[in-house]
Write a structure and sequence with these properties.
Blueprint lengths: L4 E5 L4 H12 L5 E4 L7 H6 L8 E4 L14 E4 L1 H11 L10 H26 L6 H13 L14 H19 L8 H10 L4 H11 L2 H5 L3 H11 L6
Parallel strand pairs: 1-2
Antiparallel strand pairs: 1-3, 3-4
Helix pairs in contact: 1-3, 1-6, 4-5, 4-6, 6-7
Bound molecules: glutathione (GSH).
Glutathione (GSH) binds next to loops.
Organism: Suillus placidus
InterPro entries: Glutathione-S-Trfase_C-like, Glutathione-S-Trfase_C_sf, Glutathione_S-Trfase, Glutathione_S-Trfase_N, GST_Omega/HSP26, Thioredoxin-like_sf
Protein name: Glutathione transferase
């Protein structure tokens, strides 16, 4: 029998969704516990993740109430670390390829996503910088994609795809609804840039990721749009 795995998440957190995607793609049995991140229970930081953020997982130990995790289970946090962990405990899932070169490429893709897309993209949504760095990051990611392939690396869904997909879903919202603290129209303008021939390979990859059943199963677009609209309301006119 496999070890118990409990995922602590928030339904609208892109970092949590990375883990849900990997779990669904690996068909991995697990229990999910929703943490109210706006009113966090005291036990969460003291017993699960000292940093107090989702996602986090407990692994192993007895099957207990998620609100009272066992000291015998391992506690693992940071979405990219958890993704690697899932690939380790499900070595036959394809979450990481077997080939060491492709494994390195998947890790490089994750690192590039975190540094060059995630950071600039959320800075843009928050109205802290223009979309120039986001576009540069997307160009960098596009350069890593191989023509004619559906996935970030190799010919199978990996943690590299899980790492970027929630951000691609957020990007879709921004370019289709212009929601964010950036000056009015900049979300649409970013969309126009991305729809040009220069970004055709990236946009094909985006569509493939957004069409996956795992994405649809783990994502509530309307609620994320509402969250974006309420969190990112004061706009530069
Ligand atoms: N670098 C972290 C970021 C996690 C993160 O920022 N989680 C947010 C939700 S999207 C959170 O838990 N916020 C609650 C808080 O900071 O108190 C990761 O990749 O796991």
């Amino acid at each position: 029998m496999s070890e118990q795995l409990t995922l602590y998440l928030h339904k609208l957190s892109p970092y949590s969704q990375k883990i849900e995607l990997a779990l669904v793609e690996a068909n991995a049995p697990h229990r999910a516990y929703q943490v109210d991140i706006f009113n966090k229970p005291e036990w969460f930081a003291s017993k699960v993740n000292p940093v107090g953020k989702v996602p986090a997982v407990t692994y192993g130990g007895p099957n207990v109430d998620p609100e009272d995790p066992s000291p015998l289970s391992a506690k693992i946090a940071e979405s990219n670390v958890v993704l690697e962990f899932l690939a380790d405990i499900y070595p036959d899932s394809g979450l990481l390829p077997k080939d060491p070169i492709l494994r390195a490429k998947a890790r490089f893709f994750m690192d590039a996503t975190t540094k060059h897309v995630e950071g600039p993209f959320y800075a843009f949504i928050r109205g802290l910088e223009s979309y120039d760095n986001t576009l540069k990051g997307i160009e960098f990611i596009q350069g890593l994609l191989e023509e004619g392939r559906d996935f970030a690396v190799g010919d199978h869904y990996t943690i590299a795809d899980a790492c970027i997909s929630p951000h691609l879903a957020g990007l879709k919202i921004v370019i289709e609804t212009d929601t964010g603290k950036f000056p009015v129209g900049m979300g649409y303008k970013l969309g126009e840039e991305l729809k040009g021939p220069k970004f055709a390979k990236f946009m094909k990859y985006v569509q493939g990721m957004l069409d996956r059943p795992s994405l649809k199963q783990t994502y509530d677009e309307e609620s994320v749009i509402t969250l974006f609209k309420t969190r990112f309301t004061e706009r530069v006119q």
